Amino acid sequence: MPQTITPENPAVPLPTFPLLALAPAPTSAFAWLAPAPWAWAASAIFLGLLWFAARRHRDAGIVDVGWAASLGAMAVAYALLAQGAPAQRLLVGLMGGAWGLRLALHLLTDRVLGKPEDGRYRALREHWGERADGHFVWFFQLQAALAALLSLPFLVAANNPADTLAPVQWAGVLLFAAAKIGETTADRQLARFRAAPTNRGRTCREGLWRFSRHPNYFCEWLIWCAFALVAWPAPHGPWTLLAPAVMYVLVTRVSGIPFTEAQSLRSRGDDYRRYQATTNAFFPWFPRPEPLARQEPIA
């Protein structure tokens, strides 16, 4: 005789439906990712509001400020809400928050307030024409999604249960400090060069700009390598290597160097072409000799 499925018959397990149960389902292996969708949603709303401001002022450069501010805010939020040890969460909040605040303020004062629209976004606006405002909607939302993806090192590190920092994390802290000093130095050198009226139309080759055409982007990438090192010892830590990998592709192949180089060629022409011929685009190295001008054969 077959057994009857009843609560009184312990030999026969009852079916369970966690999604329909009133009680919470058992903790998932991916429960640590729970704050990420909320961070994405908050960033999407924030970038959406900035889109209205960009539409009103005809300046899409504010998207960069929103992207940096969103990531910094995510780092602080994860530090407050995650389940890691206090030392780990404090480190995430300080590093991520300081990075986001510094970059957002720099972009706001250097490229937005009182400045014409960044050449990269002017080119996009001209390319899209009358449909530019509509295209910028998804462009702003793409930045929100990208911020959520790149916040992974902050979330992983903030869930690290270790009470003390591992040597690789201290290496990350030192790399972060060195990269921030380098990035700040490069920004100041460029600002000082641009402030001189005699340098109008010329390319900065001073300081760190002598060794790389984009030392600020290189130092920014190093900062993301530092974030990955800080997150490395945590559970799921190796996944955070995706962040510097994605950042490298974005900076060197998508939205960083390609757009900046195109704008520099439009504004500085042959002077920038000579700079390209002698100086590495990304990784710093000693400048090469300028190639000799090609001479036409004498008839």
Commentary on this structure:
The chain has 299 residues and is mainly α. It has two domains: 35-156, no CATH class; 165-287. Helix content is 63%, strand content 0%. The protein contains ten helices and no strands. The protein has helices at residues 35-57, 62-81, 86-112, 119-128, 132-150, 152-158, 167-195, 215-231, 242-254, 257-278. Helix 3 (86-112) packs antiparallel against helix 6. The longest helix has 29 residues, at 167-195. The radius of gyration is 25 Å and the shape is globular. The N and C termini lie far apart (110 Å). Mean pLDDT is 87; it is low at 1-8 and 10-26.
Summarize the structure.
The protein has 299 residues and is mostly helical. It is 63% helix and 0% strand. The chain starts with 34 loop residues before the first helix and ends in a 21-residue tail after the last helix.
Which helices and strands, and how do they pair?
Blueprint (H helix, E strand, L loop, with lengths): L34 H23 L4 H20 L4 H27 L6 H10 L3 H19 L1 H7 L8 H29 L19 H17 L10 H13 L2 H22 L21
Helix pairs in contact: 1-2, 1-5, 2-3, 2-5, 3-6, 6-8, 7-8, 8-9
Task: Spell out the key features of this protein.
299 residues, mainly alpha, disordered N terminus
**Tally of extended strands?**
0
| Radius of gyration, CA atoms, in whole angstroms | 25 Å
**Residue share in helix:** 55-70%
Structural class: mainly alpha
Question: Alpha-carbon distance between the termini?
Answer: 110 Å
